[in-house]
Specification:
It contains 2 helices and 2 strands; from the N terminus they run H-E-E-H. It has about 130 residues and is mainly alpha-helical.
Length: about 130
């Protein structure tokens, strides 16, 4: 005995839901990596602040270490932290948007399954990038 086939309109909605779930997972993974990178950078800044101004410091460029001065490296690391904060804010907003979309999609699928009908055509002002 085979299970009943899912109607095409429901398959389409489930597919959209799964794609949104994958997008959310990707965003969350990116945020996690960004937070780890930010923590590592903050630790490097803390360690660099312990070094005396006259001591030799090096920065990594690919597979080589290059001698540099403490202030230049601190400035670069501070800039990296600011960029990470900005990217984190953008990802956080994306995450909120995708979560809202997921809720809407789940509600739509539930409603469609209860009524057993195909969805009504979308309104002309239905813009997913609001």
């Amino acid at each position: 005995m085979s299970s009943p086939q899912m109607p095409p309109w429901l398959q389409e909605q489930v597919g959209k839901l799964q794609q949104s779930q994958q997008n959310l997972q990707s965003i969350m993974t990116q945020r996690q990596h960004l937070e780890m990178e930010k923590a590592e950078t903050e630790k490097a800044i803390d360690e660099l602040k312990k070094v005396a101004d006259g001591d030799s410091v090096f920065k990594q460029a690919g597979t080589v270490l290059i001698k540099s001065d403490k202030k230049t490296i601190l400035d670069e690391l501070e800039e990296k932290i600011e960029l990470a904060k900005t990217r984190s804010t953008v990802l956080e907003k994306q995450e909120v948007r995708v979560k809202e979309t997921l809720k809407e999609q789940e509600a739509k699928i539930t409603e469609m399954m209860k009524s057993g009908n195909a969805p009504s055509p979308p309104a002309s002002d239905d813009n997913p990038r609001k």
